[in-house]
Amino acid sequence: MQRVVRAQWWLLVGLLLCLPFAQARDDRSGNVLPLVAVASLPAEARDTLQLIKRGGPFPYTRDGVVFGNYERILPLQQRGYYHEYTVKTPGMRHRGARRIVCGAVPECYYSGDHYRSYQRIAEGW
């Protein structure tokens, strides 16, 4: 009886130790991304959304290219599903760090830190 209790105790300890790692994987899968209202986005992001909706023209040659989702933060999809667009950053001479990544529009995500984190843009824009 004591062996069974000890084995169950070690199983419980093992499961509890794995819990933080399982949660971290869930957070990076794209299933638990915060939602952001279009009105809460920077004005430049709202401008980019309108360009996406109209199909361009886009100010940067890299706008509309396939986004690989190598960080695996967004929901996993087949290659070619996501496309990235630059969100202008005032005062920057280059593209800066802000992006919008879209799957099947209106499924779009905003990243203000060059793909380290995302917010799902609320639909209806």
Compile the SSE list and pairings.
Layout: H1 2-28, E1 35-36, H2 43-54, E2 65-66, E3 83-86, E4 99-102, E5 108-111, E6 119-121
Parallel strand pairs: 1-6
Antiparallel strand pairs: 2-3, 3-4, 4-5, 5-6
Describe the structure.
The chain is of the alpha+beta class and 125 residues long. The chain has one domain (33-121): Nuclear Transport Factor 2, Chain: A. Helices cover 31% and strands 15% of the residues. The protein contains 2 helices and 6 strands; from the N terminus they run H-E-H-E-E-E-E-E. The protein has a 6-stranded mixed β-sheet, covered by helices on one side. A hairpin with a 7-residue loop joins strand 5 (108-111) and strand 6 (119-121). The N and C termini lie far apart (62 Å). The model is unreliable at 9-28 (pLDDT under 50).
Major β-sheet strand ordering: 1-6-5-4-3-2
β-strand number: 6
Strand content: 15-25%
Using the CA coordinates, give the radius of gyration: 20 Å
CATH architectural name: Roll
Uncertain parts: 9-28
Helix and strand succession? HEHEEEEE
User: What name does the CATH topology carry?
Assistant: Nuclear Transport Factor 2, Chain: A
How far is the N terminus from the C terminus?
62 Å
How confident overall, as mean pLDDT? 82
CATH superfamily, called what?
A: Microbial ribonucleases
Supply the key terms:
alpha+beta
What is the gist of this entry?
By secondary structure, this protein is α+β, with helices and mostly antiparallel strands. The protein is built from 2 helices and 6 strands; from the N terminus they run H-E-H-E-E-E-E-E. The protein has one domain (33-121): Roll (Nuclear Transport Factor 2, Chain: A), CATH 3.10.450.30.
